[in-house]
Amino acid sequence: MSITIFTPGRTELSGNHTDHQQGRILASAVDVGLTATVDNSSGSKAVIESEGFAPFDADIEHLEVIPEDYGTSRALMRGMLACFKDNGLAIGPFSAKVTSTLPSGSGLSSSAAFSVMVGRILNELYNGGKADPVFIAKAAQFAENNYFGKPCGLMDQLACSLGHAVYVDFRTMEIDPIIADFGSMGLTLCLANTGGSHAGLDDAYASIRIEMDDIAARFGQKVLRDVDPDEFFAKGWSLSERPVRRAKHFFEENARVPLMRDALRAGNGEEYMRLMNASGRSSENLLGNIVAEGAGDTKLAEGLELSAKLLEGKGAWRVHGGGFAGCVQALMPSDLFPSYKTEMEKVFGPDTCRELKLA
Question: How confident is the model at residue 107 (pLDDT cuts 50, 70, 90)?
Answer without folding.
Answer: low
